[in-house]
Request: fold
Amino acid sequence: MWQMVNTTPFQTAGTFLRDADGHEYWCMAIRASFVTDGNGAVALAPTQIPVQMMPAYAGPENDILVSEDDFIPFAPLTDILVHGTILPAAEAVAAPLSLEVGRLVKRATVLPPRRARLHRGHWRIVDQGRNGPVAPGWQVSFGGLPPGPPDDAPPLNPAGCGIWLRTPDRFPDGTETDLPRIEGAGSDCIRDPFAARPVGFGPVARWWRDRLALAGSFDDAWRRDRSPAMPADHDPRFHCSAPRDQWPARHLAGGEPVVLRGFLGARDWAFRLPQVLFRVETRFARRVVPSQMHFARLDLVPDAGGFSMLWLGALRCDGRDEQIGATRISLHQIAGVMR
Reply:
């Protein structure tokens, strides 16, 4: 009962979840890891990353989301995330970055370490180093917490820096603050801090503003009519941990071209995603039920030369979980991978 019989070279796992309306599902996950030389050749990774059953956090207060759990079967699109380290050319003062997956294109700029000092009510850059390695996460993006007591609004990016640029009147002369190392293409937080926005390539925590807004309204109407199910205005994109500018229009299918520029200095990192089909069948009571798997998440690690693909499927069981037997997973077809 509740077994995963896996004959593929990949990692698999299963668990039970409920959807926004409270219906119970047996959820199946397949995670496949690959390596690439960045010039088009793709092969199976010698070590396959396991399916992640819970979120991973880091930081001195364990408050930096490194990765979400892998069970997001109700998300309506593919999560696209970049991990590892950006390695810009050292001589570049402002190096352009671009992420392209299929038709999705995202552009940004990576800058050297910088600090600003307040002088007579104006912020000025006083210390700038050489451009060097930087993580693609949110600690080096525009954000942070404004001075004073916290308000009731959820934060946009509490892990970042630069938000103090918006309130010079609340600090004494001589105050210094770190500046973001990743900014949007054409953005300059010193020139116009109110136009600056967080730009990152890693996962967004559930309690940050852009993601929390999709959870729905937990108000009196929800308590009366829907609790403990999700609110009526719940948006299933809440399950997506990728930033909104890394959302494709729908689930990817495999076969899409991937190109990252600026993440490895002057060298582009380019390849085409493999196309993989599975046969997934679950013993449910006296029947064998097939499940369609969809491509749910893409994790890119350009500095390590690898990437990982996650497929998910869900079988509605509504209180009959004891009737779920073994799920058998086999590889039906794979293309775009060196043998």
Notes: The longest helix spans residues 220-225. The CA atoms of residues 257 and 272 lie 4 Å apart. The chain is about 5% helix and 40% strand. The chain has a mean pLDDT of 93.
